[in-house]
Every structure is written in structure tokens, then in C-alpha cells.
Amino acid sequence: MVKQPLHLCTPLLLSSTLSGRCQRDVYLKLECVQPGGSFKVRGLGRMIQKAQSKGFSKIVCSSGGNAGMAAAYCGKSLEMQTYIFVPSTTPKYMRDRLQAIGAEVVVAGDVWEEADLKARQMVDAAPTRALYVPPFDHADIWEGHGTVVHEIKQQLPQGVVPAAVVVSVGGGGLFNGVAQGLESSDWSHVPIVAVETKGAESFNAMTKARALVRIPAITSLAKSLGANCVSQRSLDIVLSGRPVKSMVVSDRQAVLAVESFLNDERLLVEPACGASLTIAYNESLLTEAMKDNTSTGPIVIIVCGGNAVTLDALRTWLDTTA
Ligand SMILES: *Cc1c(COP(=O)(O)O)cnc(C)c1O
């Protein structure tokens, strides 16, 4: 398949501020500037393009967050009808944004499970035309997310190998894709630092139990990391023995990193993304992340982005986590 992908090749920025703080080169892979506001267009775009070439003509998604935004963008670009089922709790500004892109927003029920059920019913009624698009758990999605590593390899100075790649983890789609991209770039020895916030740490629970763990409730304000359980593939990758460092940071640390990043780089990202940035903004977290890591290479942070943030929300979070 040689179709033009739907995602952009994003800038890889050598941050002088963060490199100074960390006393080694820190590169920022700016997924926050992707269409749809996050890296999600990489994987969802790959999945949806493949499905279209097999004859699918409709996209059905049950995310009122960044996956929904990416699905809406893909639908618009590929001229496919796009239905986003959301619960009534989805903020109006997100519904408006989805509609502005051209998606049909269907409010179904008061909780996500109800909206998702309605989405699946629509797909079941037209199984050869309508594609159900999950937020993270599909092989095509991981394949698409993996392109972020291929770009990083092209963009770093010749021969430079990262000491670590830092990613935020929700359901593990980005993590799986980055692991796969490192593998296909002959960088399977490069450690992945997998960061979550406390109250959304289903990946960390999995690494400790060495089995899938369902955490009972998401209490973190980093809602884009709020998967109760990670994908089976994430477990398989951890069990394969590739180097992975799982880290859990506080909401406070994530929100402070969002604020510092806004001031330093003039970019506004979600706390879900701030979680990854804490590694470069917090000396003790950096030490923990790089413990036993003898490489002198740069740290590459995937700046995963996100829509669910405004300056007002950031001010509120700074207050409520103080
Ligand atoms: C989706 C998302 C994540 C989590 O990605 P997973 O693939 O679910 O692990 C993190 N940050 C942002 C901004 C996201 O949109």
C-alpha cells in the first residue's frame, strides 16, 4: 500500500532549555502539531486507510477525546462518513470541534459503555461497510504509531542513537507502536520509559504483576491515560524482556510540567502529555528514569499533545493539585 499517509512528519526539536536542565541532549518529537491534536492520527489513519481500500465506507468511533478527533480528521480527508458516539458527559467544546471537522456526533447514554454499545450496534448492522475504530487496541494502529520512530531515526544526526524514548501510556497503543518502530529500526535495545500518572497506572500494575491488571477506578485528571487495563500486546512486549522502565508520576508533577512547557516552548498540551515531560523537568524523576542506563545518547520525548486542555483548565488544575 503506497498511499500518502494522513499524518504529518512532525518536527524533532532539540530543546536548549531541557538539554541544559538534563545535562544531555533532549529532543522533543512534536506530535502535538498533528492534525487532530495528537499522535493518534498515525495509527488510526493507517487502520482507516487500510479499511477503505478493502471497501469500508463509514467510520464509527466511541471516543469524545483525541481518538475521536483523529477519526474525524481521517474521515474528512478520506471522504468517509464518520459517526462519533459519545456520552452526555462529553464537553460541548469537544462535540463542537468534532462537528466542525465534519463528523456526525451522536449523544448516546450517560456513560461511555452505553455510547460504545450504540456504536457497535451501528457497526453490526453494516459489518462490511462500517468500520469500528478502537482507541488503541489494533495491530494496524500500532503499525501506524511506529512511524514516529522511523521519522526520529531520519531526523536525528547520522549515527546518533537515543539513550531512551519517553512515552505516556494509556491503553498502550503508543507504547506498542514505539516498541515496534524501534524493533524495525534496529533499535530494539533502546529503552522505552513508559510514564503514567497516579490513578491511571494500569501499565505499572501490569509490569509488577507480569499479568494484565484491571485497576478499579481512574482517579487521575490525565483522562487520556485513563484505560482501566492495557492491551495484551503491551504485556507481551514487557514479557519479551526488551528494556522498559515503567514510571508513575503525580498529577501535580504532570500539571507543573504542562505549565513549564508552555512557558519554555510556547506549546499547550494535556496533562497526559505533561506526564512524559516530567522526566525532563524533574531531577529525581530523570535520575530514576535513567538508573542503570549507561548510554550518553540523547533523550527523545514523544510530545503526544492532546485537545482536552485550555488555559482556564490549566489554572484550575494548578489550584486543585496544589
Ligand atoms: C491517547 C493518548 C495517550 C495514550 O495513548 P495510548 O495509546 O492509549 O497508550 C496519551 N496522550 C495523549 C495526548 C493521547 O491522546
Automatic annotation (TrEMBL):
One GO MF term: L-serine ammonia-lyase activity
Catalysis: reaction(s): L-serine = pyruvate + NH4(+)
Keyword Lyase: yes
EC number: 4.3.1.17
First and last residue of the signal peptide: none
GO biological process assignments: isoleucine biosynthetic process; L-serine catabolic process; L-threonine catabolic process
Domain named Tryptophan synthase beta chain-like PALP: residues: 9-305
Named cofactor requirement(s): pyridoxal 5'-phosphate
UniProt enzyme class: lyase
Keyword annotations of the record: Lyase, Pyridoxal phosphate
Stated family: Belongs to the serine/threonine dehydratase family.
Name of the protein: L-serine ammonia-lyase
Organism: Sphaeroforma arctica JP610
